[in-house]
Amino acid sequence: MTNAPALASQSDARLDWPSLFATRSTRMKASEIRELLKLLDKPEVISFAGGIPDPALFPTEAFREGLNQALTGPAAGQALQYSVSEGYLPLREWLVERMKSLGVPCGVDNIIVTSGSQQALDYLGKLFLSPSDTALVTWPSYMGALSAFNAYEPEYDRLAPFSNREPGDYAKMAAEKGGVVKFAYMSADFANPSGETLSQAARERVLDLAEELDIAVIEDAAYQSLRYDGEEVATLLSLDIARCGSIEAARTIYCGSFSKTLAPGLRVGWVCASSKVISKLVLMKQASDLHSATLNQISINHVARSVFDVQIEKIVSVYRSRRDRMLQALEAHMPEGVTWTRPDGGMFVWVTLPEGMDGAELLAASLKHENVAFVPGKAFFADCSGANTLRLSFSCANESQIDEGVGRLGRAVRLVQGH
Ligand code: PMP
């Protein structure tokens, strides 16, 4: 016998929850990637869907050492205790040196540690966007950024550095939508999802536009360390500082992450920007989660200081081979009319299908008939265009899976084309 109440069914709900939710909640939708990832447990599926690091490449031994050290002796008290919202000071000091090596002279007051760069995107949306303000974003853009910003009920306009739109056109369109332009958001290196890297000239154009509109620039640098070919292009923040003289005068806000280099599970990222922006973010962090997990920050600090460069070398060499293999396989297996990007780094190849074909329809067919998964491109477009695009990630499949999976995808394309 038990006194526990019977499990309620959905029809027992007394409250009309949606009528109580704030209007901003209507813009919060399940991410297509997350929903999809739930379907990928079947061992026969070859997945090019998740943009996640290969767990076999995590620096596990260095983390074990870091955690041991953090939990040994008097340091344990600190590792398990509440901490400051700005972040663990030795880690911020390491980040200052890292940012200097990227051409960004700065101090610890220019750095806040966040719980992944995703939290930084949420905070920046919260800090800048009043409902109906406009965010300039690329078409396509990282869908997690769009989800983070959506909660603040913005409008979007297309950021295209080489379009011939005048700055005044952006301002006029934003005013028509009931707000003003607040920032331009972009991933300048090996973007998620396009894989593309902006040339220095394009970065200068973005900064010109931002100056003319007098808005902030959010530089999402999640993949920046993963370069496989070619010369590094200066960060937007360093180009901005070269124009204005110091980080305190810069309009660019740089969002970094350890997720793609060391490990995403610890949720450690950072923002580097003018101290005026950082001090606001510190207040937001106090109000939202007080600080990022101290133990995680201490262990990331240990691992970054002991193996960062070696780790980058290791993952770059593995991911470079996988990228090469994916490009070769696409060449071998894709029917005519399908095109794709050739990324210099990162984790993604962006595929464009012939006009009229639909990425979501292709996904359904390739899961059903070929057991291969990817992400249809539409969700990455703020205007819901891009139906004939898709994102392939090469980070988590080994080379024979890449050959096999792209072969199957080619068959699925032909199958859908044949209909
Ligand atoms: N920006 C981009 C472009 C990403 O692809 C991701 C993760 N997929 C993030 C930010 C967020 O990463 P994290 O919160 O793990 O740092």
UniProtKB/TrEMBL annotation:
- Asked if the record carries the keyword Membrane, the reply is no
PANTHER family referenced in this protein's UniProt entry, alphabetically: AMINOTRANSFERASE, KYNURENINE_ALPHA-AMINOADIPATE AMINOTRANSFERASE, MITOCHONDRIAL
The signal peptide, as residue positions, is: none
User: Which superkingdom does the taxonomy of this entry point to?
Assistant: Bacteria
Biological process annotations from GO: alpha-amino acid metabolic process
Please give the Pfam families that the UniProt record associates with this protein: Aminotran_1_2
What molecular function does GO assign, one term? Answer: pyridoxal phosphate binding
From the Swiss-Prot or TrEMBL record, give the protein name. PLP-dependent aminotransferase family protein
Which residue intervals define the domain Aminotransferase class I/classII large in the entry? 75-409
Q: Which cofactor does it need?
A: pyridoxal 5'-phosphate
Record-linked InterPro entries: Aminotransferase_I/II_large (IPR004839), Class-I_PLP-dep_aminotransf (IPR050859), PyrdxlP-dep_Trfase (IPR015424), PyrdxlP-dep_Trfase_major (IPR015421), PyrdxlP-dep_Trfase_small (IPR015422)
Alphabetically ordered keywords of this record:
Aminotransferase, Pyridoxal phosphate, Transferase
